[in-house]
Amino acid sequence: MKKTVDANAITLEKEKESFVKTNKVLHFIFIVLQILSLMLAIMTSIMLVMMGINNVFKISDSFSFPDVYLTLTLLVISVGYFIAFNHARKIFDVFKSGESPFRYDVADKMKGAATAIISANLINFAIGLVYFAVGGFMKLSNGEVFEMDFNFDLGSLILGILIYAFSYVFNYGAKLQQESDETL
Fold first, then answer.
1. Which tens digits make up the pLDDT trace of 75-96?
2. CB–CB of 121/55 below 8 Å?
3. How far is CA 99 from CA 3, 91, 93, 114, 177, in A?
């Protein structure tokens, strides 16, 4: 009986070490993704400012109405994913400590990431509707009629909903973990 307990303890310790190593790698990956999304947000913000300056001062015709739409949606996506990656990085901060992942703060960070993804998707959809409505009445500088095709990213919406659902699983796990800790 004693050897079984020792073997289980050793196996559990090896799994914990593997869990910590994996989460350190994932933490690093989310730092990189967060930096890339921040750089993208900064670049698209600069592009939008340049388009605005170009439009006010009529410097050139190099930017068109569809360019503004695409740049604006890219900005919303990059900011939304920057926020989601920030929450994910914080989740893996907790995980790499080797503590139980079933904690209330982990569930809250998951809800934050899901909210950022869902919000970015819905804001992009609203921007698409507005630009589609406005674009139907505009003529481009070259005389062509502006035709807009916008997409609703169902995959991102489902991802956000799944992450939100998993946050409830982690919240329930945190309650069970708390009850278990209180009984010991």
1. 999 999 999 999 999 998 888 8
2. no
3. 26, 12, 10, 23, 11
